[in-house]
Amino acid sequence: MTSVSPNATAPPAPARGERGTAPAPIRARRSPRLGAARGGRTPWLYLAPALIVLAGLLIYPIYQLGLISTLQYTQAQVSGGEPTSFRGLGNYTDLFSDGQFWRVLVATLAFAAACVVSTLAVGCALAVLLTRVRAVPRIALMLAALGAWATPAVTGSTVWVFLFDPDFGPVDKVLVWLGLDGFADYSWTYDRLSAFALVLFEVVWCSFPLVMVTVYAGIKAIPGEVLEAASLDGASAWRTWRSVMAPILRPILIVVTIQSIIWDFKVFTQIYVMTDGGGIAGQNLVLNVYAYQKAFASSQYGLGSAIGVVMLLILLAVTLGYLRLLRRQGEEL
Amino acid sequence: MKLSARIAVPVAALAVAGLAVTGCAPSTSDNSAKTDEKSGTLRVWLFQEVNNKPKEEVVSAALAAFKKDHPDAKADITYIPVDTRAQKIKAAFNDPKSAPDLIEYGNTDTAGYVKDGGLADLTKEFEAWPDAKDTDPAAKQSVTVGGKVYGAPLFVGVRALYYRTDVFKELDLKPPATLDELTETAKKIHKERPELYGLAVGGAYTYGAMPFIWANGGDIANRAGGEGAYTAAIDSDAAKRGIAAYTALFGDDNCPAAKCAQMGGNDTVQAFASGKAAMAIGGDFNRQAVEDGAAKGKYGIVPLPGVKAGQIAPAFAGGNNIGLLKSSKHRTLAVDLMKSLAGKASQNKLFDAMGFLPTYTDVREDAAKRRPYVAPFVKTLAAGAKFVPATPAWATIDSSLVLPTMFQEVASGRKDVDAASAAAAKKMNAAFSSAG
């Protein structure tokens, strides 16, 4: 960004012509002077609209979230039944001393990790498949994926629960017909792992299309000669993916991975709908549903905000950690 | 770190977008009324029922009676959906300017709304009201917090045992006279007719399970000295006997845990109505659902039996109340309208129109004579119904699913009665102490 923005004030023609070929020293020599004279203010001017919007929609809510998380703030304080009081880190100590919070946190991390890995695997595999099939099956697959993508989460979850219903659902019947008698009247939401598995299927089903479409677009942009060379060398599909496509697609994969981490860490609707708000005795709670229970269902807004802050920090840590790891490997985005 | 910073912002944006809903200013609204205007428009929120027409007619009649005495006053009635009532009423507390004067509310919410500072104390008006003398004690308890009255009971809802007369006749069974017999009967039916649940039970059906605890002499919590102070009693020996009795009904010999542990009250009634269960614990308010199902014309209702023959297990006294918001600018007028809506005449009509049980003992007995099917419910109420602890902590306990979690843990075999009830008692005590 810093190397491009001074150019914005330079005469346009040379800048456009130079960009690809001009040796770096010329720009390096010119930009400090410009930066000191005019560039100091100009980039901020361009950034101002975005910054104002971000400040309003992001900084202010985060500030409020942090503020409320230090207050005794329930419905009674909101509607004036009791005065609002400062609790310091009281909400956080309450939260961290709640054994359920830690169990839910661990379950959320494991569940999100499983969802991210599965979504990426399915999405990438189908993207590669798309490039290798004829037009008709490709369009069919595309339409099926877009259909899944366009389905609202609540609708998708309800349909999945019905498909796996022990009394009326077709899935158990098909499994029995295939000879798996153990699935007669099998209740998927009863056992903790099978309930998580059921939700995972739904999450993967509704989030793989984004990965697939994005990666497919990326593959299409790879020069044909590269792939041709790989196939001339006799590389298998896996080998081509591993050594040719994946490295080229790295920026795209980073973006979809981060997006998947964020989405899957924040899963709410699927768990809420499919396991009736957290499963038997709360066995399928994830952090977002837990936060909802605390913050909104029982109106403990202060505690809910503390959970929000913790989630924010975890997501930031995971994402920054992931990016650092990539940088250490010498990759630029 | 340039890269990280560039990513961090959108990352943070996405992360917070979902959580920032709480991010409105931590404001506090002033709910105290400044005036008591004697004319103007009263706003009233009532719950929207599945079939609302008959209710609207009763309300119009009550309004007409009210207007005769107060020609200058107008009333604007809004029917709010039951599903979103919690948000709506919270919003009304937050924004006194657009809040109604009177609201209908579920009686388990009383203590919570009082603590929120939303409801006005009506003790004086209630005591001076002639109709109120015949109010059922359990119903009165449901509008009372810390010795003060916060509204008028509108109707009570109570549960009893529905059973399939055809199945009982075929297997030559009699309606059970004790809770032990109930269990035996349920298991016998499931053995003979494996496609039926003997008694449909639900792990998340708190108000169907509580009678087992109350019948065994246990309770959710006991008063502990001070005003509105409670300690959990769910881990007492008597309560544990009740928990064991209820959770023993989950199993392959009656209602398989894999299916029944996650059921709630409506699911069990639905199972009965659709002919999948030979017995279920349902309310007077569930009768229409059963009438509309496959069980129509093939069922009877008796009070849920107690531990010994001749006893009735205490039922939970559910129901709705009408209360005045603290922010109302028309206190006198609104109280008069409340009396008109929840008075004897209106409750009598409401029973005929909707089947809601009156909260006045004399009106209720009359009603049972007119419609014999409510007799088992009236009998259950007469035997003494119970109520949840009248403390704002109940809202927290209810919404954090303390009791369903306990029943589900035992029913699914994850914990034994001792461990599950001890854990529940611990959570309840934490809620009691933070609310007190």
TrEMBL record, chain B:
Keyword presence, Signal: yes
InterPro entries listed in its UniProt record: SBP
Keyword Signal carried by entry: yes
Source organism, top-level taxon: Bacteria
Key words, A-Z: Signal, Transport
Signal sequence extent: 1-22
Family designation: Belongs to the bacterial solute-binding protein 1 family.
Name under which the protein is recorded: ABC transporter substrate-binding protein
